[in-house]
Amino acid sequence: MTKPDHSMKPSDEVDAHQLSVARREGEAYQQALLYMANEVADSGKMQRAGDYIVAYAQEKAEGMYVLRGEGRLEWQAPQDENCHLEISVSDASDGRFVPYLKIQATLSGQGQDIGPFEVPFLWHPGLYHYGKNIQVPGDGEYDLKISIEPPTFMRHDKTNGQRYAEKVEVKFDRIPIKSGQE
Prior knowledge:
By secondary structure, the protein is mainly beta. Helices cover 14% and strands 40% of the residues. The strands form three sheets. Strands 1-2-5-9-8 form a five-stranded antiparallel β-sheet, covered by helices on one side. A four-stranded antiparallel β-sheet has the order 7-6-10-11, with no helix packed on it.
């Protein structure tokens, strides 16, 4: 398990108590992430990558609600998609989820490359993450490449804010994929 390194220090923007609260939020997020990756998903792993902890979880394709206009949510079942790929990106220092990222992924296996494809933010009642239903040739081992662009959001704090400034690429080799639909 990759654990946050708690490298942020008190500064003119954040005191020790605020950092402690942020770390507790990160610990709760990491517990939920481990539960999803190890207990709920068919497969999942995590690794440190620059300023981030990047994790994936894989499940069978699943239906989701899609906004079709103000106040109108519509259930959309998977069509040809048979794989749901979930990606979590959290802060390597405090473990909290990092929002507003542009993420692309590519799966390579079974003689094909699937992607690159965008992996958008996906709201989930148990864990904020990025996710997408995709179509794969079938069950088997795949290599997963994840690319995270530097986010354009502003950062507070002269002491701790010089972060997330470079593109990050992560590779998970030989991940087991179980295809199908829920």
